[in-house]
Amino acid sequence: xxxxxxxxxxxxxxxxxxxxxxxxxxxxxxxxxxxxxxxxxxxxxxxxxxxxxxxxxxxxxxxxxxxxxxxxxxxxxxxxxxxxxxxxxxxxxxxxxxxxxxxxxxxxxxxxxxxxxxxxxxxxxxxxxxxxxxxxxxxxxxxxxxxxxxxxxxxxxxxxxxxxxxxxxxxxxxxxxxxxxxxxxxxxxxxxxxxxxxxxxxxxxxxxxxxxxxxxxxxxxxxxxxxxxxxxxxxxxxxxxxxxxxxxxxxxxxxxxxxxxxxxxxxxxxxxxxxxxxxxxxxxxxxxxxxxxxxxxxxxxxxxxxxxxxxxxxxxxxxxxxxxxxxxxxxxxxxxxxxxxxxxxxxxxxxxxxxxxxxxxxxxxxxxxxxxxxxxxxxxxxxxxxxxxxxxxxxxxxxxxxxxxxxxxxxxxxxxxxxxxxxxxxxxxxxxxxxxxxxxxxxxxxxxxxxxxxxxxxxxxxxxxxxxxxxxxxxxxxxxxxxxxxxxxxxxxxxxxxxxxxxxxxxxxxxxxxxxxxxxxxxxxxxxxxxxxxxxxxxxxxxxxxxxxxxxxxxxxxxxxxxxxxxxxxxxxxxxxxxxxxxxxxxxxxxxxxxxxxxxxxxxxxxxxxxxxxxxxxxxxxxxxxxxxxxxxxxxxxxxxxxxxxxxxxxx
Length: 652
What we know:
By secondary structure, the protein is α/β, with parallel strands linked by helices. It folds into three domains: 5-262, ANL, N-terminal domain (Rossmann fold, 3-Layer(aba) Sandwich); 282-433 and 442-470, ANL, N-terminal domain (Rossmann fold); 475-641, ANL, C-terminal domain (GMP Synthetase, Chain A, domain 3, 2-Layer Sandwich), CATH 3.30.300. The strands form seven sheets. It has a five-stranded parallel beta sheet with strand order 4-3-5-6-7, with helices on both faces. A five-stranded mixed beta sheet has the order 12-13-14-15-16, with helices on one face. Strand 1 and strand 2 (37-42) form a beta hairpin. Helix 9 packs across helix 10 (240-253). It is globular.
C-alpha cells in the first residue's frame, strides 16, 4: 500500500482526521453497537464531533500541555476525546476501565490530570472517590447519563453539554480549531500510556505523534493495509496496542473501526462485523480455542470424529497451503474437502471468515495454539514489541513463518542482542521518555537511542528473532539444563482446561507448577459427567479434575522430553490453586500478564511445599471481590507427583 502524499504530510492525529474528512469524508470511520443496532459515523461526521468537543474543552479551560484521562469500554466518543484533547495541545492519559479506584488514582495523581472523560456511572463513581487524592482533577465529563440524574457535583458535565458549549465557542471563534490543529508538530508528546507493571510499579511512557504515525505507517505498508480494512476495537483503550491500531493505523490508512456493545458480546459482534484485520493477545486466542473444544466435546460422536480427522490433516498440511508451499495433490484435495466441512464453517462461527491478517503479541503464544489457527487458514502472525516501541519491533514475514520466532524487524527498526543475551532495538517508535522518571529512562534508553527490552533472545540464520523469556526469569536447573518458565507455561495453557500456569525450577532439582483451571471448560466437562461442585475451589480439588490435569502435564512432559535443551524441565509436581489469579489481587496485570515476582512472594509457602515431599498444603489468602470488598479464603491443596518421560537427550 502507498500512503497518499497528503496523509504523509499530516504529522499529528488531529491533522490526519481533517485529511481523512477531506479525502474520504463519506466513508465509514467508526461504528458502535448500541441496544443491538450498529450506529455509524463517517470521517466527516467524526471530524465534526471532534471539533465540537475540542472547542468545548477549550471553552472550559483546557490548555496546551494539560492532561485529560479517558476511562471506559471502547467507545467512539472516548477515541474522539483523545484526539480532541490533542487538537488543542493537551495530552491524553487513558486508564484501564477495570482499574479499581486506588490504581486509577495513582495514575491520575502521578500524571497531574485536570480533566476526565468517563463512559458511565461506574467510572464516574471511581473518579469521584479518588478526587481527594487527585487535587488537580477539576472536571469530569460523562458520556452515558444513566444513573447520574441526581448527581449534583458542580464539576460534572455531560458529553453533549460540552459539545454544545464547543459549537457556541466555534461560532464565536471560527478559526480557532483549524489554527490550533495546524500548530501541532509531529515531535510533540501525543499521549502518556502507563506500562502494565509486570515487573513492578507501572511507568508513564510518553509517545510522540511521530512515534505513533511513523510506526503505524511502516507496519501498514509492510502488510498492505488500506482504507478497506474492517477492524473490531475491543481491547483496553489504555493499552498501547489499541492506540496504535485503533488510532494510529486507522487514521493513517483511513479504515473503519467498530466498537462492540460490551465485553460479553465481543464474539457475537466479531461474527457480525467480519473483520479483515484482527489483533488479539494470546489469551484471547486461547479462550477462543477453549470455546471451540468445549463445543466439540458436546457434539455427536460422528462430528467429533470428523473434526479430529480433518484437524489432524490441517496440522500436517494447512500451514504449508497457507504459505503457498508444495503439498501433495491428494492432501490438497482432502484439505479442500475439510475446508467445506470443517475449516470454513469453523472460521465463520469464530468471525474469522474475512480475516486476511491477524496479529498476536503481548506474550509468547503457545506454538500449538499458533499452528492450530494457521492450519485453519487464518493468517495469524506474531509481532514483538512493547509500549516503549509504539508496539512494532518485529513481525513475521509472509511465506516465512516460524512458530517459535517473532519475525524480522519492521521497516526502520534495528535490533541487536547484547552479550548478556538481552534484546535491544531502536527505530522511529522509540519512546520519548518516562514521565517524571529520568532515572528509569536512562536505565532503559541509551544516549544513542537503543532500548533495553529486558527479554532474552537470539537472531537465527534467517534473521528472525527468537524470544526465550524475560531475561531475569531464564534460569538453570541444578543439572545445568535451561529453565524457561514462560515456555513451559505456554505449553500447559494450550490445554483448554488450564487457564493459568506458574512454573518453578530455577536452581532446583526439578520443575514444579501452580495451575489454575479454566472454570468454563472444566465446569462443562464436569457437568457432562454428572460431577457436582459448589464453586471454583471445590471443583479444582476434585480427584477426577486432578486426574484430568495430570494427563495434560504428562503430555507436556512428553513434548519437553523430545527437546534436548529443555528435557530436564519436565514437571515433576503440581498443585491447583484454590483461586483464580486475578488483576484485582495484584497477581496479573490489567492486560492479564503474570506478575511473576509478586506471585512467587505471595505464594512462597505453596512453592516450598512443592519441593518438600508433602502431598498437601494449607493456605489462607486475601482476595478482592468485584465490589472492591476484601475477604479471606482458605483451603487445603492436594499436591500431585508426575513421572518424567524417559529421554535419550540431556540438556546442556
